[in-house]
User: What shape does this take?
Amino acid sequence: MRIAAARPLPLRLLTACSLLAPTVGCKSGSRESVQGAREDVASATGTPTEPEAPPRPLYDDAGFHAPDRAARRAAVGSLESLPPTLQRAFSETTAFRPVNPPDPGDWLAEHREPGQSFARFQRVAPNVPSDARRTIYVQPIGATADAPIETLSRFTADYFQLPVKTLPSVPVDGLPVTRRLNDDVEQLLAPELLTWLAKRLPEDAYCLIGVTMVDLYPDPEWNFVFGYASLSERVGVHSFARYDPSFYGRADSVSDGVRDALILDRGAKVMAHEIGHMFGMRHCVHYDCVMNGSNHLDEADGQPMHLCPLCLRKLQTSVGFEPDARYRQLSTRYEQLGMTREATWTRERAAYVAGDADDAE
Assistant: This one.
């Protein structure tokens, strides 16, 4: 066990979203050494990789500029050769909100994201599940009795359309991971957790995500991070520590029911976000999307649970599910979890994608 004392950190480094780690545990950053690397990503949908027009700059001296509709459509790519169901699933409709210019302190105001079109996603040959390796494993780390891990595991199975298994919890003491105290809060160094997790990846695993009640930090210069994942090594981790209002001294401000709902909502979003990174998806800059970066809790709470058309196309190409069936399963899951807004949204999307309902273009 290694414990490092944290020095006072600048306020601007109080950042709270997952930090992309494309080369964590990977010598070259290439995905060729990882199972399931795809030589012909387009074969899942029959769509050839298309030449991409030079993208409009997302940043200039004035800051971030949200892509316009033409840029968003170009990022999704041509849908002409796809079946009607997939065309509807990946088309922009009123169900999706384009990303707005960030407020000061938001993720896109602080981090110059390059963006990732579907064509760029294809070119990096992202990991894809195979018949031999298609299970998502969840690794509890430390005491997690207050974390809704089994509930989130069932949600994750519906969200990614893959089987999910939960491993026995591993105690924090004895982990080969640096620990520090930051404002009297114990934290674990997330990159070292990823190195440890990569050595525990089961043979039949598509990916392995650690979950813990201990706070995380990605680098000595950062205050904390909600989650951290590798784009190539199929491992990630996220912490529930900051999901609970009691972490901020606001335990008496909400009822137990509201507290539990907040923890579940926040946990589901970060679980989906971090596993999305393990499919090779970078932060989304085109729509309000679960793959958006977030710099603080208010920003994270304001982001949706769903994937935008662009990120949904990336995931569907990798896994090969039917989008309308996925939406129906998620709607049922959200109803069981009491997430009424998400249940309604996914139910309406299922009807539209299946061709049973209209939605304005």
Q: What stands out?
A: The mean pLDDT is 84. Residues 58 and 65 are 5 Å apart (CA to CA).
